[in-house]
Amino acid sequence: MTKQEFAEWAGRETIILDGATGSNLIKAGLGRGVCTEQWILEHPQVLIDLQRAYADAGSNIVYAPTFAANRMNLTYYGLDENIRQMNHDLVRLSKEAVQGRAYVAGDLTTSGKIIGASGEVTYESLLEMYKEQIIYLVEAGVDLLVAETMISIDETLAVLDAAAEVCDLPVMCSMTLEADGSVFAGGTAWDAVESLQEMGASAVGLNCSVGPDQLESVVASMKRVASVPIMAKPNAGMPTITETGEAIYNMNAEDFAKHMMVLVKAGAGIVGGCCGTTPEYIELLAGNIR
Predict the structure, then answer these.
(1) Nearest Cα to 57, choosing from 253, 261, 200, 276?
(2) Which of the residues 128, 140, 242, 253 could staple to 281 if both were Cys, CB 3.0 to 4.6 A apart?
(3) Residue 22 in this model has a pLDDT that exceeds 90
(4) Is 35 annotated as belonging to a binding site?
């Protein structure tokens, strides 16, 4: 998909993303302290069934489970020598799941580190990390890229710079935000929109964070400064953490879909669900939109 094709598509209709991956994998047996990407490759049918259900529910785009399949994260698990093959295999699973009924986005995420803080990471090191993963995602045949759950505007700019050096695919960027629109590492949601669209993002928005019931004013504020589509992929409400550490999300599918329509009216043109959502949530959301 070209950037122009993406822009024309987003100008015609509301684009529907998938819902959660991680919280559904945990329900299926993903344990604590293991590499999620490796677990998926060891249990491929779990991912295939989930993403097939999202395509059935109406998702136009599903995220390949390459969320943290970058050198920094895989080195932590001693899997860095497998990075190219893992990205290829994870994209292949998503393609097998959707069978051409939805686009497959190569998924990238934050390093979790702040640029320049105590020498943890530099812009240049992040640029190289993202560039390497994007090369493998492009080789695997993704239709577009998404940088999600980003906590820093500067790090998200590194994704855009890396993508620009490697390919001409559309890049969607979504930050994880507080309910007041503040970015974890500094700045605001509207700062993110202005900076990222200027640097070539094809869409900018938010994911994870809180529930859709708390984000109407944030989405409206982002829309006011946007020249690209605004994304909204929030959680199924705020979780309650049990004594065993399990996150229980408090918003049911019907309420989620209702609140998401408020965000669509506020200006979100690309919508889906994050933690706690399932194909049922996406099916009801798609039904309300279409």
Answers:
(1) 253
(2) 253
(3) yes
(4) no
Query: What spatial distance separates the first Cα and last Cα of the chain, rounded to whole Å?
Result: 23
Reading the block at residue 138, the tokens are 């492009």
Q: Is 173 annotated as a binding residue?
A: no
pLDDT tens-digit readout, 236-289: 998 888 877 778 899 999 999 999 999 999 999 999 999 999 999 999 999 999
Cβ atoms of 215 and 246 within 8 Å: the answer is no
> What is the maximum span of the chain, computed from C-alpha positions, in angstroms?
49
The CATH code belonging to domain 3-289 is 3.20.20.330
Give the residue carrying structure tokens 């934050």.
110
* In contact, 148 and 233? CB cutoff 8 Å: yes
Angular region, 48: left φ>0, alpha ψ -120 to 50, beta rest: alpha
Q: CA-CA distance, 72 to 106, in Å (whole number)? A: 17
What tokens appear for 268 in the block?
Answer: 């979100």
Amino acid at residue number 82: N
pLDDT one-digit tens code per residue, 68-81: 999 999 999 999 99
Is 275 part of any known ligand binding site? yes
Q: Is 180 helix (H, G, I), strand (E, B) or coil?
A: coil
User: DSSP strand E in 84-127: where?
Assistant: 103-109
Q: Read off the tokens for 82.
A: 């497998």
Q: Give the integer Cα–Cα distance in Å for 287 and 242.
A: 32
Stated pTM of the model? 0.96
